[in-house]
Amino acid sequence: MRKIETIVDEKNYFRRLDKFLRKNYPQMKLASIYSLIRKGYVKVNGTKVKNGGFELNIGDRIVIITHEGVFKEESRRTQPIPMKLHILYEDERILAVDKPPGIAVHLGKNINKPTIIEGLMFYGKKNGFIPFIIHRLDKHTSGILIVAKDRESARILSEMFKTRKIKKNYLTLVKGILEAEGKIDKPIDGSYSLTFYRTLRTYDETSFLEVHIKTGRKHQIRKHMAFIGHPVVGDDTYGDWAFNRVFKKKYGLRRYFLHSYNVVFKNPFTGELISIESKLPYDLKEVLKRIEKNY
Q1: Is 138 a catalytic residue?
Q2: The whole model's pTM is what?
Q3: Domains of the chain, start order
């Protein structure tokens, strides 16, 4: 028997327990999910839940007791792991870290390297708190990640994200020439989505933008920029694969060009206005330098 723990956050949230498990553990056999629930092997905040329709909330801690044969393939459990964290902001209830590219926030399929949540668990264990990640950045996106240091703070901050009281700004490089500024309001997966962008500089075949997202849909910036014909450079999922291949070879880009550089919100506990900034990381700075050198 082994134990798997996870925290319900804005990105992995599903209202029903059974749907949450199905969506977040695709490597788990469907029959095993319902068997584990029915037999009391799933706990929510320390209490056994035997009803698959049980309603979850952001910040809930899910514990699954598994046994041989549950997973289609072997999967390790989340555990505290020492990790060098670049802390941008910290107080008694809120923490902000600078996430490097190439490191996943949570464990998932085919992810065997240490994750951000595991590094935060180790840091929290040393400093007397349990981390609750409020939102998620994709594996290859760098920048600011907001973390709550207790369950109540997690619920409050999650609600602030939902009600758009936390302003998130990104820097990105897109294909083509985009002048001035604009907005994109195309629904994503049937949900209202709104993105604003402002051109900071244009080059021969790309534009460097500041992007502000009013909603937080999955891959929102990448999908919205591709929709208007200016995909994020390096994004092979929604972008131009042939263009990316030439660009990567010419300028040395090793991921899609997307960085969360600024988060602004009013501290719900002190009333203080907090503005957190993360500098453009070295790899993306070098790409811009090479572009400007050839411009």
Answers
A1: yes
A2: 0.76
A3: 2-66 (3.10.290.10), 87-294 (3.30.2350.10)
